[in-house]
Amino acid sequence: MRIRGAWFVAVGLTVAVVTAGLLVMTRAGADADRCTGFRVAARERAELVTGSGDELLVIGDSYSVGLGVRASESWPTRLPGRVVVNGFSGSGFSRDASPCGDVSYGARAARALPEGTSSVAGPVVVEGGLNDVDQPRRAIVDGFQQLMSELAGRPVLVVGPAPAPERAGAVPEVDALLARLALAHGVGYLSMLDADLSYLDDGLHLTPEGHRRFGDLVAPALSTARAPGR
Fold it and tell me: I need a surface site. Which of 37, 117, 192, 226 has the fewest CB within 10 A?
């Protein structure tokens, strides 16, 4: 009986280990598929350049990409100038906000703003924070500092996280931190804490009307954009 019992225990442990392994592989596969989708959406959004005149770069998350709505309905289309979007769903100021590798704003800014090109002269709007709500404070600070280093010399407006119902409880803390960091670095900051926005059924992403309202709040705040350190 002892041998039989031991056999059952061994089999049970084996099944548990195999099941856990399959769950990890399944989750990893799901993350890989999702990241692939995010990368495709990011490329497609980058190809949609709207408006004319002086170039304006937007660096952001799924809000900038327009997840859940048509790209042409996303809030950056409400901004003046020739608007180029470098967005990646699920990303943020901190490196580990996304499971898709280092797609943090600072890392992407380094790639989006190559030295020696005419496309880097205009102002930059950095939108986000919703994906940083569960990240360590230090990670957000480090990511913000890296971003400011990459954007040195360019007017910057940071737009904080919207009070999306799904994450509303954690938004004020991130908003306050980003506001302090923007002040410390001398760049413009627009808080969205009091913004009256409409959301999709997921309680996280904006409806087309929410995007219109978001963009119309950002546009006049562009006058507060300042280069880091000034």
Answer: 117
